[in-house]
Amino acid sequence: PLGCPAGTALLPLSLSLCLLLAASFARDAAPESCNCSQPLDFEAFRAAPLAESCCLNFSSSNVSLLDWGALLGVRGLRELDLSRCGIAAIRNAQGVPVTLEVLHLSHNQLESLPGGFLEDAPNLRILYLDWNRLRELPQSFLKASRRLQEVYLGYNALTFLPSSLLQPSLQRLQVSNNSWDCSCALLSALQGRPDLATELTCHTPQRHRGAELLSIPRDELCRSHGLTALFICLPPLLLLATIACCFCKRKRKTNYSFGGRRPPVAAARRRGEGQRAGAPRIPPLRPLRAARCPLREGEEGAAGGGGAAPALPGPSGEQQGPVRGGGDPGGIPGAAP
């Protein structure tokens, strides 16, 4: 129009070019969207693996034993769906596709995970492990997942959470319908993240079954577990003390039998001496000897003839006369003729 500068007419065209360039740069910077709607067969993939793909959907495949190593060579893999595959075990579990962000392992038959599984998954953001039979998780589970945002662990048989899972970036933790042991250690692990424990319901101990973990006073929970540990340790200690006491008594009795008492022969001899000591003392018998008495004159011949026995001392010490051979007591003083 008349009176307008010549460059004014080019202004709308310049703005349009700028908008087109900005949209082009934004499209190049934005990540390529993945389409995981078309499921693949896992065995067919193992026979002809893909070198590069942003998404792999193996849901509902028949995979009882998952060969995790077959997935490590796929470049650019960001989402992996292995749900409803009947997976009961995982082998070759070391390593993770470095670009992996979303992993689906729900609705399987996993009872445990191999040690080191998902230990080094730096870009993992969302993990689905619900509807399995898991009883425990590895101690270093998700240790390097600094970008972790959501973890789904519901409908398992878990009793404890490893502290490595509770990343500062974690925003959603689904843990309902498990067998949680409401211990002082579990409460301490979740103490700084009460927003993550809203669905954690106690299964043990029995007196807290059905109660939410955060509704139990810390003093009661920690003290009760201390008393439980004491009651568990007390019976074995009492049993050991009883055994030690019996052993000491038996050893003392054995020492008395062999050290304080005399052997059977010596004891019998001692008893015999005691009996003799209590009885009246009887002097030992001495052999009788014939006393030699001087013969009277006139009797030497008779004695030499052997007709009479030698004279014996009387009861009072005096000598008796010789006894004649015929039994005549005439030679004994005091005897009747």
TrEMBL record:
Protein keywords: Endosome, Glycoprotein, Leucine-rich repeat, Membrane, Receptor, Repeat, Signal, Transmembrane, Transmembrane helix
InterPro entries noted in UniProt: Leu-rich_rpt (IPR001611), Leu-rich_rpt_typical-subtyp (IPR003591), LRR_dom_sf (IPR032675)
Annotated transmembrane regions: 227-248
GO molecular function, one term: pattern recognition receptor activity
GO biological process: canonical NF-kappaB signal transduction; defense response to virus; positive regulation of interleukin-6 production; toll-like receptor signaling pathway
Primary subcellular site in the record, as a coarse category: other
Span list, region Disordered: 259-337
UniProt GO cellular component terms: endosome; plasma membrane
Gly residues: bias regions: 323-337
Top-rank taxon: Eukaryota
Keyword Repeat: yes
Full protein name: LRRCT domain-containing protein
Source organism: Anas zonorhyncha
High-level lineage: Eukaryota, Metazoa, Chordata, Craniata, Vertebrata
